[in-house]
Design goal:
This protein is mostly beta strands. The chain has one domain: Immunoglobulin-like (Sandwich). Helix content is 9%, strand content 40%. The chain contains 1 helix and 9 strands. The strands form 3 sheets. It has a 4-stranded antiparallel sheet, with no helix packed on it. The chain has a 3-stranded antiparallel sheet with strand order 3-7-8, with no helix packed on it. A two-stranded antiparallel ribbon has the order 6-9. Strand 4 and strand 5 form a beta hairpin. It is elongated, with a radius of gyration of 18 Å.
Length: 127
């Protein structure tokens, strides 16, 4: 790694080059009604969001009947809640540059911070 690469990485850290979510909460599902919500990840201070690779994981559980899937940099929460209760899932994203999409290709990670985690509370109440 050259000194120039070190300087570039330091600048990325100063300008807060890290993953963000389009929202920090999810609305509560309504029992037995369609639920379709999304959270999109992006990189702060970077116009090339789609050039990065995003890997989402979900820890914990979603309301029964709601599923989670990823497409690109978007996490989808879909279905219909079929059970009353409270759920507290945690959404994680790990972002990489795809092994050289930025920089000289030798540095597999040109981002200062590559992860983002957000915990949500989802309550399905009875009518």
């Amino acid at each position: 790694m050259s000194a120039c690469d070190d300087v570039e990485k330091a600048i990325d850290c100063i300008d807060d080059d890290r993953p963000q979510f389009s929202r920090n909460d999810l609305p509560d599902p309504v029992l037995n009604e369609a639920y379709n919500e999304t959270i999109t990840a992006s990189i702060s201070n970077t116009p090339n969001d789609d050039d990065f690779d995003y890997a989402f994981t979900l820890d914990g559980y979603l309301p029964t009947g709601i599923s989670f899937r990823q497409d690109g940099r978007t996490a989808y929460f879909e279905g219909a809640a079929t059970e009353i209760g409270t759920w507290v899932p945690t959404l994680n994203v790990v972002v990489s540059d795809g092994g050289g999409a930025f920089g000289d290709g030798a540095d597999a990670d040109t981002l200062c911070r590559t992860t983002r985690t957000e915990t949500f509370t989802m309550v399905v109440a009875g009518m």
